[in-house]
Amino acid sequence: MNGTGDPKERVAIIQMNAELQRAQIELSRIQFAIGKLFTRFATEDIARNAQKETVTAALEVLQTLNGFYSALATHRPGDCAILKPGTRRLSEEDTLHAIRCVSGYLRRQREQYVQMGKPIPAEQRARMERFFPTSLLQRILIVEMAGCRIDNPPFYQEAKELGFANLPEITHMASLTFDDVIVFHESLTERILFHALVHTVQFHLLGVDAYTELFVRSFLRVNSHFLVPLEAHAFALDSKFAANGERAFSVEEEVRQWIEEGRY
Which strand (E) or helix (H) includes residue 175? Predict the structure, then answer.
């Protein structure tokens, strides 16, 4: 395919890009799974106890992917920054600009969806009261999307031009927490609700501005949404809930401890 304008070639290019987009979605799901794995287990423990066949097969896949995308980089050198997102170190001024963009986005989304919000259903709220303060649960509003999803923020394009392509895909997330408003893309299961409520506690104790600054600075450091401590902690707590949902514990105490210890 050389871009001659032939109709058959145009169709082939469209099909090729559709396949690449599907591959990108699958890679995002893989990254999500790996992120959850590393929030629960130390690298040394995984290396020591993982089944040899599983690790070998994964490494073979990674080698194939590395060869494929490295070949793309050879032919499109301008994309190297995209293949190595986050390698550029932002100035403090640019970092503060990013923080303002994200905090502004969170506030605008909250104002947009608060009008559509409804209280957590009584049965699920009663279940969550074993883990979250009743006063918090009573003021949380939820929105269940019907057949549509929230698009990526407009500032994503600017971030990608700076070389950051490893950004969380908003449209692929099960839920999104905007302070005290939670928007659900998928069915309202207990675990998805629990995870989102962890973030409401983080927002409640930190405030939107501090939450945003911690998230952005952490993302710039670790270059992975799933490894940002605010997100990793939410995954760890929802895993704890899923493992034994009958054993009550205080999410607020857990979050407060992480704040006091500077772990976020």
Answer: strand 175-178
Rg of the Cα trace of the chain?
A: 21
- 57 to each of 51, 68, 93, 203, 212, how far by Cα in Å? 10, 17, 44, 40, 38
Q: What is the rounded distance in angstroms from the CA atom of residue 109 to the CA atom of residue 156?
A: 15
**Boundary residue ending a domain (33, 49, 83):** 83
**Contact (Cβ atoms closer than 8 angstroms) between residue 183 and residue 150:** yes
Backbone angles phi, psi at 145, to 5 degrees: -70, 140
CA distance 254 to 233: 9
Model confidence over 39-75: pLDDT tens digits? 566 556 677 788 877 777 776 677 676 666 656 655 5
Separation of alpha carbons 124 and 130, rounded Å = 11
Q: What is the pLDDT of residues 116-129, one digit of tens each?
A: 999 999 999 999 99
Q: Model pTM greater than 0.90? A: no
Which residue range forms the structural domain that includes residue 100?
92-260
Q: Are 169 and 62 members of one domain?
A: no
